[in-house]
Amino acid sequence: MDDDKVFKALADPNRRMLLDRLCERNGQTLGQLCDGIDMKRQSVTQHLGLLEQANLISTVRRGREKLHYINPVPLYEVYERWIRKFEESRLSLLHDLKQELEGKER
């Protein structure tokens, strides 16, 4: 996994919005992704290209249509590498605090 590409892709709010839209309904065409947003088709195409380079989305051709699908694996890898280790120690501290408080109440 190329962490830099993933973080760069996630740094832009427009790309995060496109990922959110794909999360809500996976397998959308460019036209569907452009519906209801204030962004030019060319800009959406560029954002999708960066998301694809970061392996956050994949595409499948169906006839003349190109469907875009979210790929959760790089996000999970970022979670495992960068977030989980911080989450575990915090949860452990909260668990210890809970145990201590419950012990004092008894």
UniProtKB/TrEMBL annotation:
Domain spans labelled HTH arsR-type: 1-90
SUPFAM superfamilies, A to Z: Winged helix' DNA-binding domain
Highest taxon above the source species: Bacteria
Family annotation (Pfam families): HTH_20
Gene3D superfamilies, per the entry: Winged helix-like DNA-binding domain superfamily/Winged helix DNA-binding domain (1.10.10.10)
InterPro entries for this protein: ArsR-like_HTH, HTH_ArsR_DNA-bd_dom, WH-like_DNA-bd_sf, WH_DNA-bd_sf
Name of the protein in its database record: Metalloregulator ArsR/SmtB family transcription factor
Natural source organism: Nitratireductor arenosus
Lineage: Bacteria, Pseudomonadati, Pseudomonadota, Alphaproteobacteria, Hyphomicrobiales
